Model the fold of this input.
Amino acid sequence: MLQAGTSFPDFTLPNQNGKNVSLKDLAGSWLVIYFYPKDDTPGCTTQGKSFTTSKSDYDAAGIKVFGVSQDDVTSHKNFIHKFAFTIDLLSDTKASLMKALGIGQSEWKGTMYWDRTSFVVDPKGVVRKVYEKVDPQGHEKVLLDDIKSMQDK
Done:
């Protein structure tokens, strides 16, 4: 697993609208890049709703939030539409970024899923904190508080 203090790997992934998002395009911003198992599942829905509810707080703090899963662009678009999410979801269908980061996988009912993992990336592209096997309930608040304390230093 990529550790704090390491540069986040460069990536280019499509969002729910098919528009490519690259790390280099996000330089100069604090980032939350969270990885989740699957669109339209209970924990992933909770997490997406929580980030949507707190989006104005993230915007006010100058933090951009991106969710990433192995689901395709169409699945992301449907997921966002169904729950009125206001955050971007990026599609890593080949799991290239997840593999580069060393995100683990867990089995559930005979199927392997990527572990729910969040990365805080500073404006220079350096990972400041990694959260593994995240509980989606309330995680957005923990992230926001942690990043604000990092910004104050």
Observations:
- The first helix runs from residue 42 to 53.
- The chain has five helices and nine strands.
- The beta strands are 12-14, 20-22, 30-35, 63-69, 88-91, 105-108, 111-114, 117-121, 127-131.
- The mean pLDDT is 95.
